[in-house]
Amino acid sequence: MGALDSSAKKRRLDTAAVFARWFLGGIFIYMGLVKALDPVAFLKLIREYEMVGNPVLLNCIASALPWFEVFCGVLLLTGVAVRGSALVLLGMLIPFTLIVLKRALAIASAEGIFFCAVKFNCGCGGGDVLICQKLVENTGLMLLALLPLAGLGKKWALRFDLWPNETTAQLPVPS
């Protein structure tokens, strides 16, 4: 009975990880498209962070980053390069969250307001957000990205449905 319970738990966890993968992919497709469809507004927002001084590099970031987010989201939705996509999204989420945190601390200090009362458009595609809400959202997205990175959520993935792994390819075919 214990092995059956363990197998059922693993299937439920894997199914939950698939939905988490799809949700994460959908979020990044949405956020990327919001930015990509209004590149001038996104350019103005990332210019406010004052991290890139070169206008050509700034324009390249503003035009390429949103489409890269969409691309990673599509890979997650379809189940192709799932671990790599999750790792890349984590690689974007972690520094971005730290940059937003730094900017929010500067705003709170300059305006003399409570940290969680800081509200600004961070450039994520959702408009003005309260900083504490944004930090919770980003933490949740990072946790969701850890699931596919750990190898969970392979069910209903093009990569694993179209190209079987070596162990299933070597199984004898019943006659």
Question: Could you explain the architecture of this structure?
Answer:
The protein has 175 residues and is mainly alpha-helical. It has one domain (7-150). It is built from seven helices and two strands, in the order ααααββααα. It has helices spanning 2-36, 39-47, 55-78, 82-111, 131-149, 158-162, 166-169; strands spanning 119-121, 128-130. Strands 1-2 form a two-stranded antiparallel ribbon. α1 packs across α5, α2 crosses α3 and α3 (55-78) packs across α4 (82-111). It is globular, with a radius of gyration of 20 Å. The protein starts with a helix and ends in a 6-residue tail after the last helix. The model has no long low-confidence stretch (mean pLDDT 87).
Task: Compose a concise summary of this entry.
The protein has 175 residues and is mainly alpha-helical. The protein has helices spanning 2-36, 39-47, 55-78, 82-111, 131-149, 158-162, 166-169; strands at 119-121, 128-130.
Quaternary state reads: single chain
Gross morphology is globular
Computed Rg: 20 Å
What is the terminal separation in angstroms? 32 Å
Q: Sheet with the most strands? A: 2 strands, antiparallel
Count every helix, treating DSSP H or I runs of 4 or more residues as helices.
7
Q: Name the strands of the widest sheet in spatial order.
A: 1-2
Number of beta-strand segments: 2
